[in-house]
Amino acid sequence: DTAVSQTPKYLVTQMGNDKSIKCEQNLGHDTMYWYKQDSKKFLKIMFSYNNKELIINETVPNRFSPKSPDKAHLNLHINSLELGDSAVYFCASSLSGGANTQYFGPGTRLTVL
Amino acid sequence: AQKVTQAQTEISVVEKEDVTLDCVYETRDTTYYLFWYKQPPSGELVFLIRRNSFDEQNEISGRYSWNFQKSTSSFNFTITASQVVDSAVYFCALSELNTGGFKTIFGAGTRLFVKA
Q1: pLDDT in tens, B47-74
Q2: Could you give phi then psi for residue B8, rounded to 5 degrees?
Q3: What is the DSSP string of B83-109?
Q4: Does the pLDDT value for residue A55 go beyond 90?
Q5: B49 → chain A, closest CA residue
Q6: Which residues of A touch B89 (CB under 8 A)?
Q7: Of A13, A22, A37, residue with least CA distance to A112
Q8: CA distance A94 to B35
Q9: pLDDT confidence of B99, banded at 50, 70, 90?
Q10: Measured between CA atoms, how close is A34 to chain B, in angstroms?
Q11: Which SS3 state, helix, strand or coil, does residue A83 take?
């Protein structure tokens, strides 16, 4: 039973391309997140959605566009990929109404060549 | 502003040693939450503990224990009788209320090597 799943697990692409990462959770949570982990393991929040509405939007280039079609899904689309976008992207989910525990997906390792 | 400091970048111990991972946080709020996560070499992030700011009781779970001290803004994590499988990067995190909801920030992580 996968709680938070992401696809793909690995993504290798050329600079300038557009790519998407998908995330799904079956925990019944209403809040979902995207985090970026860089090569030094630093983990930083990018976006947070509650009931399909964007509630946290950190200083992220507008080449990154999250989309939440429903409470169980949060996808991340990245336009015009740059070398600096290479990282591991983690999706997470939690219940709302406080700082509830976030459960993370397995991560998507994005490599931009 | 929120801040989490994990001053130990890397720690190396021999199996069966006890090890403490330090976490110091900064927050303006009286209501906040603290977390520890483990990231083993396989890469996933595993939740270990959540603690709210009103609960200063220490917690023990098997070989793991946590010491929360508001007076020093610290939430330290101790592994007793470490094992090779404890080798991982450990993250401390702080959630506090921001515009729109709770925002979580993570420390830089402490990489723990446990040698056989």
Answers
A1: 999 999 998 888 899 999 999 999 999 9
A2: -85, 115
A3: -GGG-EEEEEEEEEEETTEEEEEE---
A4: no
A5: A101
A6: 41
A7: A13
A8: 13
A9: confident
A10: 12
A11: helix
